[in-house]
Amino acid sequence: MSQPQFRTPKGTHDVLPEDHQYMTYIKKAVRHRARQAGFRRIDTPMYENKAIFERGIGEHTDIVEKELFLVTSKQREAEEKEAEFALRPEFTAGICRSYIEHGMQQLPQPVELYAIGQCFRHDRPQKGRYRQFHQFDMEVIGLKDPSIDAQLIQVIMNIFKDIRIADRLQLHINNIGTAENRVAYTEALKDFFIGKERNLPEIDRDRLTTNPLRLLDSKEEDTQILLKSAPTFEQFLDEESKAYHKTLLEYLDTLDIEYIENPKLVRGLDYYTQTVFEFQDKETGAQNAVGGGGRYDGLIELFGGQPTPGVGFAGGIERMVWHMKQAGVKAPHKDQVDVFVAQLGPEAKKECLKLITGLRDKGVHTLGALGEASLKSQMRLADKFEARYTLLLGKMEVKTGTIILRDMAAGKQQEIKYKDAISKVIELLGKDNLDTYTIRDRFVEVDED
Ligand code: AMP
Prior knowledge:
Rossmann fold, 2 domains, 17 helices, 19% strand, 16 strands
């Protein structure tokens, strides 16, 4: 085969139908569990004013400093103005912007929102790290209580259980205190490293000036050795944060949720306060976390809203698919072809178009009337599509008001009355196996992308 002229851009991928079987399964679990817990779906634009990310996530975080995709237009370029927008690298900042913009503080609190969609980060692509990827995101905004954090964690845990990857993951949890605690600790950390900068690897020397907290989850061995004698976060936590954390852990115990207290967990984003947590791969740890989240009690105020607490979580869908595959989980799907309708002659073809519509309306997955090929090659096609049954309508059958029904696996066929074709197929497939939806489903259970 010749090389295709165009390929997906580096770090992006096509989600092919086989992968959609997993994605659909995951989305279904997310929607189901979210609804059970009172969450409602929100979609925010894929790009937003870039200041939302810079201010919210933090200018000196990797996500903003190195990984933001800027969006500009020909007009702006012509005016030599810098980019106004950026593709969302995550959901939280946009959802908080939306909460303020739509006056959601007027709604009963907390407001529980969830989103599913693409995020973009201009990272160096590697396994499990893409430039365009999917997240599901859940946010609880407007009320603060450890029971809210615990319930959010429980909902996420249930999603991981539903898709059968919970056993492969470990919940790490920490409390990083209030914004004031963070400032005090950051100063202490900077003081501690005065005179020791030379011993730090270059990347962490930079972080010391831009975002010292990131040193805590540094992967550099030299940094970790130095940190052993550094002041710890715990020494700077106020009593309220300590009590909050203690109660949260008690609630997790009550809900039988296992966790690892991890004082090194800081998460890379500036907006976090107090609770932070991450679901890490049991085998490889932090590097391939499947999802993470935490509290962001100052974020909405930072965006100009009333002081409003919030807690949220984002899970990486590609990494969830990967875990499902590793665990040998087969995503159930409904992509099979039930019936292939083969026809010969213009009259038969017209009849078949009606028949196909009739079958589809009843919830039978039906293909056919695809062209002018011979009956033999249509049968071959039916085989390739792995159709369970074939209905054959030739010139003769049109005249006699009959049709041939062939069971493909058994290799047996029978002539039946044309008018009985649909009911016979339904009988063979079984009513429970029909892909139907009711009006109620259409509004409530809609299969969103
Ligand atoms: P974060 O808030 O950065 O921890 O992201 C939340 C989750 O999104 C991560 O735990 C990953 O599962 C997923 N994720 C983040 N960045 C990427 C990426 N570049 N490619 C694929 N998945 C990602």
